[in-house]
Amino acid sequence: MSWMLLALRRYVDFRGRSRRREYWMFVLLCLIAIVLAGVVMIAATGSFRTQEQMATKFTAWAGFAIAPLIIPLIAVTIRRVHDLGLSGWWLLALPIGAAIPMLDTIVGIAQIIVMAIPGKTGANRFGDSPKASTTTGIPWSDTSGR
Q1: Is 83 inside any structural domain?
Q2: What Cα–Cα distance (Å) separates residue 52 from each residue in 42, 72, 101?
Q3: What is the pTM of this model?
């Protein structure tokens, strides 16, 4: 659970690096928020006359659920790209590629593959390896006993 919330604690930190675990756990938290929004929507509104009506309402409910998580998601994604040794500006390719028909699927698959690649070992121009700062498995935990 602490890995899911780590991105929220660093929600406006666009510098440094983030491990794969931090990134994917936060993505999982975002997906859980969307699913919960869908469950709340169904419970609150009941049945739907058409599939279009359901899609419209789900988009609105999911938008409200994910809105507070957008900036932390962008920040953790930039830090994840930094862990690979790349600039965060590469993320601008995602909306550009997603706007082109037929290329949007390829861009989405490429993002999943890139985010699954292990980060560079040791320090790079964006900072020290995030694996070096986690000795107990809990990110930035205090091992001094205070």
Answers
A1: yes
A2: 14, 30, 22
A3: 0.79
